[in-house]
Structures are given as structure tokens and as C-alpha cells.
Amino acid sequence: QVQLVESGGGLVQAGGSLRLSCAASTRAFTFRAVGWFRQAPGQEREFVAASTWSGGNKYYADSVKGRFTISTDNAKNLVFLQVNSLKPEDTAVYYCAAHRSGSYYYTSAYTYWGQGTQITVSS
């Protein structure tokens, strides 16, 4: 069983930054890649970013390109999401997930999910 625990969310003003962390309970090679998704109230969960554990391949949603950066620490089984230039529309619960197979952009490609961490951006 893989457990993922996110942290680092909070309340921030527009234009601010946060660094989200996701700690995985098992060895990184159990799954090839990890992703970040977010879900705002009343909306579907949407893709934010994904990375192979090696960091060699990274993918971003168009809405966050240039503002968010995903990174991994293989030695510590950690995944980070640096979120900069935050906007009110970035307000959501952010989840990390372990990729199983298929397109990185779809929730169905991910097997394990964390409990989420809330980012609230005030205008």
C-alpha cells in the first residue's frame, strides 16, 4: 500500500507563493511518476503537473505553466510543487498522486492519492 501525505498549503494573497510537499511511504521505484491535481468546490479534479521520479520528464497544465514547478527528491521519496504568482482562481485542494499507467493528464491514470492540502488565494 502506498501512502501519500501532502503539506504546505495555506492562505496567501494574490501574487504570493507557496511550496507544497508530498511524502510517499514507499520506495520511489514502485511507480514511475507522480502528479499534482487540484479540485475547487463544485468542480472536477483537474491536472496541474506531473513528473517522472527521475525528473527527466515534466508536464504542466497550460493554466500553470511558468508559475508552478514540480520537482522530486528520489532519496527522500518527496515530491514538491512550487507555486508562484498565485491567483484567486488557483484556490483549491491540491492532491498528489502516484501514476500507474496512461496519460499523465487524467485522474484515471493514477492509483494512489493523498488527502489533499488547501490553497486559498485572496484577491
Plain-language structure description:
The chain starts with a strand and ends with a strand. The protein is 0% helix and 50% strand. It is mainly beta and 123 residues long.
Task: Using brief descriptors, characterize the structure shown.
mainly beta, seven-stranded mixed beta sheet, globular, four-stranded antiparallel beta sheet, 123 residues
Structure in a nutshell:
With 123 residues, the chain is mainly β. It has strands at residues 4-7, 10-13, 18-24, 33-39, 46-52, 58-60, 68-73, 78-83, 92-99, 110-113, 117-122. The strands form two sheets. Strands 2, 4, 5, 6, 9, 10 and 11 form a seven-stranded mixed β-sheet that branches.
- Judged by helices, strands and strand pairing, the structural class is mainly beta
The succession of helices and strands, N to C, reads EEEEEEEEEEE
Number of strands: 11
- Helix percent reads under 10%
What composes the largest sheet?
7 strands, mixed
Strand content: over 45%
